[in-house]
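Dear Dr. H.,

I hope your travels went smoothly. While you were away I took the liberty of generating a structure for the chain from your last submission, since the lab meeting agenda had it listed for discussion. I wanted you to have the full record in hand beforehand rather than looking at slides cold. The sequence, exactly as received, is reproduced here:
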Amino acid sequence: MSDSNALPSDPIRSLLTRWRGDLSGTYQTWFLWDERLKNFRSIRRGISAVFAEIEADTFGNVYKGSSLETVVKSVAEQRQIFRGADHAFLWKPKLRIPDIYENRANQIAFGRFLQTCVCCSGEDGQVVDAIHTLDRAAIKGLGPAAANLLYFLHPTVAPPFNTAIVNGYNALTGSKVKLGRWEEYLAMRRGILMLNERYRNLLSNDLGAITGALYDVGSGLYAAPPRDSDEAALAAWRQDLAQVRDDAGRAQRTVQAAQDDDRTHAEIQGWLRDLGIAMGYNVWIASNDRNRHCGDGRLADGCLERLPAALECAPAADAIRLIDVLWIEPVVGEVVAAFEVEHTTSIYSGIVRMLDLALGLGQAGRSLFLVAPDARERDVREQLKRPAFSRVADLDVRYIAYSELSKNREAIARFGNGLKAIEAIARRLT
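The corresponding predicted structure, in token form, is as follows:
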């Protein structure tokens, strides 16, 4: 191995350095994924809806179709680390777990746990106290998998939790953390915080980074370094680590798929941007998408640099800034149409941002559109049947299929007048 490829003497630092640059690892494919942060607000709002329904005794006694199913499915769609996160909350009738659907006292304890974690400032002590309070309730079948909800409320305090993360932590540290108990989760959390502090320059305050590395070790993408001083074992491990970096075929396939998804998403946003400008509207591009490549420039080229004052001051301003495309009337600065492009990501998140816009600004009756591949129309309609989206019927959110936009966008840009043409290719969802 040449000096330029020499690994630092600290094996864990070596591992994290290689992992950060691996195109197939969770750091590149999930932690740096532009859509990841978009979902935090919508998931937080969904969790708030769960405890509000529990407190009002309108939650019901089944998982399927509940507000909890809606938000947990959104978490489970968050790529590698959270796949399968919904399994812990599925109702197992023979075992009667997790016992939060038919036991009202347990349901209230779970709801107040969520409420405390939503409302607290995110300090370690407050979150840990809420966990201890829930643990004392001894709710059968409701264990540390609930930490996957906490992560989206307090990402610098509560790491995610699943089998692969536990396996990775044990392999890396020599610990013997077991699944299923909050005390085990809290012990692992302390260790994760210490690891994160030690290697902070390679990681982040957001514990998603360190748990992503643990997940990749625990799922077999990386081997943990030997925990003894056997130089031969360390040399063999270093050779395997270098091989992971050089395994370009698998990595390129993974990153190419992610780039294709992002490129298509940006391409559709670009179509909507160009249509809005052609029809005389000011256009806003989601704040975290502005610098994406589109054509020969940036996606935000020719668009507003700042939202109009009325939108900047709105209570839902943070969510509004993340809506994929807004068409805004130049003179009065009001939103004329809002578009959420849902290529592969959770449709739930896009709908929540639409609701924030509509309800926060009194935009009911304005033109709100979900734009998605033709094959996702059924998924969109199924999502809108959920009780959490009962208000959507009042807002008249419509669906535009990619094929309709592709086929008609040039004619709309040339001959369109106002919103009639774009509404003509949209389908009503309710």
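Two observations you may find useful: Residues 257-428 form one domain. The longest strand covers residues 335-341.

With kind regards,
E. W.
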